[in-house]
Amino acid sequence: MSMNQSIVGTKKRGKIGTILLWIVLILVAVIQIFPMIWLINFSLVSNNEMFTTGLLVWPKQFRWDNYVNAFVNGHFLLYLRNSLLINILAVLLVLVISVMCAFATTRMHWKLSGTVRTIILLGMMIPIHATLLPNYMIYDRLSLTDTLWALLIPYVAFSLPQGLFLVSGFMESLPKEVEEAAIIDGCGVFRMLATIVTPMLRSSLMTVSIMTFLNNWNEFMMASTYLSSAKWKTLPFSVLEFTGMYASNYAVQFAVMALTAAPAVIVYIILNKQITNGVAMGAVKG
What we know:
72% of the residues lie in helices and 0% in strands. By secondary structure, it is an all-alpha fold. The protein has two domains: 2-42; 74-285, MetI-like fold, CATH 1.10.3720.
């Protein structure tokens, strides 16, 4: 009888523990999601309704015209095109350079392979904005300010260490016999990388692509420093279109921020499992 009671007590404690765990997870989820809820809420109200004492506002009328104003007067399509172009090019360059660097430092035997890899990985410790001033001086002397390269170079440079870390971790786990067989059959190094090694690195490359895209999508400090004309400005600049010297249209700015955040949120929601699995597998294999 006492044994049955102990089993029942254990089951009850297990259920209570599960309920408490779910409560904690729900609270954490609400805390994490609340900034997005707050952003969308304030993007659907008028400027006068924003200045309230509550965290959230129930609008008297949903102001969908804020999004129309943001889309039309915020140069949204131009800045979206620039953001997509710069980020896609950055992702492609990071993938190509990461694969080549990983192969050179893990498969090719030369004296400084480990040193070169360590130096590149040390880039993960340097904040991207720490190089803001020296980069600006270099770009100014080379006439690269207000060009595509002014953003592309630092985006690739600061995404490369993370890409090399993940790709080299995967590459070290691949069997060398496949590559040796390809070389014996007369396959060149570049052809082997493109047709044999790269397909086997598909999971890690997917993770690198997503993380590079998300890290650079909302970057504003470098873009505002290096760019002056609207030709290459990215999506975060849309917020400034509704900022005046004495007053700002805050409701439309919230709508702009919601539109700017939407692509990154959609990418993360759709590819969340690939990000988690890729990072976990890279850490284990690395």
